[in-house]
From TrEMBL:
<dbReference type="Pfam" id="PF03551">
    <property type="entry name" value="PadR"/>
</dbReference>
<feature type="domain" description="Transcription regulator PadR N-terminal">
    <location>
        <begin position="12"/>
        <end position="86"/>
    </location>
</feature>
<dbReference type="InterPro" id="IPR036390">
    <property type="entry name" value="WH_DNA-bd_sf"/>
</dbReference>
<protein>
    <submittedName>
        <fullName>Transcriptional regulator, PadR family</fullName>
    </submittedName>
</protein>
<dbReference type="InterPro" id="IPR005149">
    <property type="entry name" value="Tscrpt_reg_PadR_N"/>
</dbReference>
<dbReference type="InterPro" id="IPR036388">
    <property type="entry name" value="WH-like_DNA-bd_sf"/>
</dbReference>
Length: 203
């Protein structure tokens, strides 16, 4: 079985691109913002942190203890981690895959990319979706011309409808990016720092 994208690791990289944090703080943020594509919490997040630290994509910068609580290690993103984050996000945005969770995760974290990079990745995805819709149309025509009953083409109709709907949405996002209606960087950083006022969350 092919291994899917590391969505937990991607999320850790994205959060640390905004500010240094300890794993518990990241865990609370994932829960509070309902990032449901992150599964297996809290163990999966702590394992992702260990894995990313081992690969030197994140580095420890501080360890503290409050009262009788366990020690908490604060991590920050390394230069290699920042480059890896951008690579993973661009790949998930631009390359359609059968598991929609990857695309949803990338959209959730797209503000970690500069707008021009996000636009290029979404343009690539739009082109792939256009090709998929065209292929579905051609396949359905061929089946209908062969005299098959319409009910046997329903699966293709469903696939085409899903691809077409996603294409429409991606194009709308591109339009909003081009017009400047979507400008996420400042708001994203405020949200990831704890709220609209940019104050740290109580974790």
């Amino acid at each position: 079985m092919a291994k899917g994208p590391d969505l937990v690791g991607l999320t850790v990289l994205a959060l640390l691109s905004v500010k240094p944090s300890h794993p518990y703080e990241m865990h609370r943020f994932v829960l509070d913002t309902h990032k449901d594509y992150v599964t297996g919490l809290p163990r999966s997040l702590y394992h992702a942190v260990d894995r990313l630290a081992r690969d030197e994509l994140i580095v420890p910068v501080e360890t503290s203890r409050e009262g009788r609580r366990p020690e908490r290690t604060v991590y920050e993103l390394s230069d290699e981690g920042r480059a890896e984050l951008a690579t993973r996000l661009r790949r998930l945005l631009s390359e359609p895959g059968p598991d929609t969770r990857g695309f949803l995760a990338a959209i959730s974290l797209v503000g970690c990319l500069p707008v021009p990079e996000a636009e290029r990745a979404l343009l690539t995805r739009a082109a792939a979706l256009e090709s998929a819709v065209f292929a579905c149309d051609a396949h359905m025509r061929g089946l209908e011309e062969s005299g098959l009953p319409r009910m046997l083409v329903l699966e293709l109709e469903c696939e085409r409808a899903l691809r077409s709907a996603e294409l429409t949405w991606v194009r709308s996002v591109l339009d909003r990016l081009g017009s400047g209606e979507l400008a996420w960087t400042d708001q994203l950083r405020a949200d990831l720092s704890g709220g609209p006022d940019g104050k740290d969350a109580d974790v």
